[in-house]
UniProtKB/TrEMBL annotation:
SUPFAM superfamilies: PhoU-like. One of its GO terms (cellular component) is plasma membrane. The lineage of its organism: Bacteria, Pseudomonadati, Pseudomonadota, Gammaproteobacteria, Lysobacterales. This is Na/Pi cotransporter. GO terms for molecular function: sodium:phosphate symporter activity. InterPro entries: Na/Pi_transpt (IPR003841), NaPi_cotrn-rel/YqeW-like (IPR004633), PhoU-like_sf (IPR038078), PhoU_dom (IPR026022).
């Protein structure tokens, strides 16, 4: 029974260690995930910068999985090249070893202080940034406390002859030990926690140094599996597959040399625990130095092994809504934004041929535009459901605002598609059935309004992608331009009808087309509201607007 209780204690302390790691990772991502994502997309064009970024960010996040998820998202979307992405992962692997190095020292005395400070900050402030700092402090304290408790819990295990015999026999079979540790790491989703557990086993004398090194190899190998399992497309699998191949190479090279490696590392620290920690760092550092040079060749090999599949014929099928990315809000929002841009491309295609549809009665083009609306609606529904699956608690203030921006963008783009496919194409059909023709002046006015709408669409995409306040102001200012164009075109058309006195020239159909083009522009102008509101400029605009309209 004592052995059973000891195992329960160990399991509980490992769970506490995992929860502490989760708190640190989620706290950093909630508070600074968007900034980290922007830095990754902006500054990682070179391999040394990518390597250094991976080391630093993973040391902060205490999770190479979180770093890998961001890098995978950028590599899959094309914002980050595969070779720099692999360099990021090499750095992330080194970064995890720095965490283990710090945690391996006996600094448990600061655990209560960190927990107390974190609790006080979290409860006494309404600022989300400070709340996340408190969350990180609590997580670090829980990790140190869990490690301290683990060391104490290992004493009964050391005295339990059966368990000791099992672990020692496992350590004597390095391949089996590596596979068991890899499976445990995959189940825990944290190589840091498993390596620290191995350190505790080595400190208690349950496993010898070579056996512990075999377990460390397994922890490194298993740490690559979660990202690979969560990638759902061949392009997304390239980066985690490359990381797996790099670490598998290291495991194959090191397995026959474990006793020799333990002997070489002894001068840096003779205790088994210190040998384990130093080996973990040396293993990943050596792999980073070996593969940082041929990383381009590795990237080309991965492209050949995992070619990009043909895009689905159905445009309504999402291409970037990776369910595995929902654990990282900023990555999931980047995916949703990319899918939203596909909707914008579809709407741009629907709007591009409007003048030809009305000028030449192109029924084939009109039918294609009408059918596109169904795909647009399905894609919009998929994006809304994807955003709804994001845990609200995992969103910081900036991510929450971005989620609302994407949702507003999707809704406005859907409305534009509905107006184009339903109203405008219905008017095109009526015009063709009645045999009505627009005058050359009418077509010219229609083309002018259409050109202004397309220019506003491009401005709206700039606002959506960059949050550009100046572009948002320009977009709002164009409402007056479209209002004047619509009024002038309507007046000219009505005047021409009166002069002809025969009711020809399209009549009410043409006027409704002009009205719907202005409605489309109103939905585009709505994209400027959130950026202007954040900048404190929306209220002034709303106060002035009635005077001009």
């Amino acid at each position: 029974m004592k052995g059973t209780f000891a195992l329960l204690d160990i399991a509980g302390y490992v769970a506490l260690l995992l929860w502490g790691t989760h708190m640190v990772t989620s706290g950093v991502l909630r508070g600074y995930g968007s900034a980290l994502r922007r830095w990754m997309g902006r500054y990682l064009g070179h391999r040394p910068a990518a390597l250094g970024f991976g080391v630093c960010v993973t040391a902060i996040l205490q999770s190479s999985t979180a770093t890998g998820l961001m890098a995978t998202s950028f590599a899959a979307s094309g914002f980050l090249g595969l070779a720099p992405g692999l360099a990021v992962m090499l750095g992330a692997n080194v970064g995890t070893t720095l965490i283990v190095q710090v945690m391996s020292f006996d600094i448990a005395v600061v655990a209560p202080v960190l927990i107390l400070i974190g609790f006080t900050i979290h409860r006494r402030t309404d600022d989300v940034s400070y709340e996340n700092i408190g969350r990180v402090s609590i997580g670090l304290g829980l990790m140190l406390l869990a490690l301290h408790l683990l060391v104490g819990a290992m004493a009964p295990v050391e005295n339990a002859q059966v368990l000791r015999a099992i672990l020692q026999s496992l350590a004597s079979e390095p391949v089996l030990a590596m596979l068991v540790a890899a499976l445990l790491t995959w189940a825990c989703h944290s190589s840091v926690a498993v390596v620290l557990l191995i350190v505790s086993l080595a400190t208690a004398g349950v496993v010898d140094a070579p056996g512990a090194l075999a377990l460390v190899l397994g922890a490194n190998l298993g740490g690559t599996i979660p990202a690979l399992m969560e990638a759902h497309t061949p392009v997304a699998r390239r980066l985690p597959m490359g990381n797996l191949m790099v670490r598998a190479f290291g495991c194959i090279v090191c397995l026959p040399m474990l006793p020799l490696l333990a002997h070489w590392l002894a001068p840096l620290g003779a205790s088994p625990a210190r040998i384990v920690v130093n080996f973990h760092t040396a293993f990943n550092l050596a792999l980073a130095l070996i593969f940082i040079g041929p990383v381009d060749s590795l990237a080309r090999l991965l492209v050949r092994l995992l070619p990009e599949p043909p895009k689905p014929n159905d445009p309504g099928v999402p291409q970037y809504l990776d369910e595995g990315a929902l654990e990282s809000a900023n990555v999931a929002l980047a995916n949703a934004a990319r899918e939203s841009m596909r909707m914008a491309d579809m709407v741009e295609g629907m709007l591009t041929g409007l003048v030809e549809v009305f000028g030449k009665d192109d029924r084939v083009r009109a039918t294609a535009i009408s059918r596109m609306d169904t795909s647009l609606d399905r894609l919009g529904m998929a994006i809304r459901e994807y955003l709804a699956d994001l845990n609200g608690e995992a969103l910081n203030e900036e991510d929450g605002e971005r989620s609302q921006e994407i949702l507003a963008f999707v809704i406005n783009i859907e409305h534009i598609g509905d107006i184009t496919a339903n109203n405008l194409m219905e008017f095109a059909a009526k015009k063709a059935e009645r045999g009505q023709d627009f005058s050359a002046e009418d077509i010219q006015d229609l083309a002018l309004m259409h050109t202004q709408v397309m220019e506003s669409l491009r401005l709206g995409l700039t606002v959506f992608l960059r949050g550009d306040v100046r572009a948002a102001q320009q977009l709002m200012a164009r409402k007056e331009v479209l209002w004047k164009l619509e009024n002038e075109a309507s007046e000219r058309h009505i005047r021409a009808l009166r002069e002809r006195r025969d009711g020809g020239g399209g009549g009410d159909v043409y006027l409704r087309i002009l009205r719907d083009l202005k409605r489309i522009h109103s939905h585009l102008a709505a994209l400027a509201y959130l950026p202007l509101e954040r900048a404190g400029l929306l209220q002034d605009r709303l106060v002035r607007e009635p005077a001009t309209t």
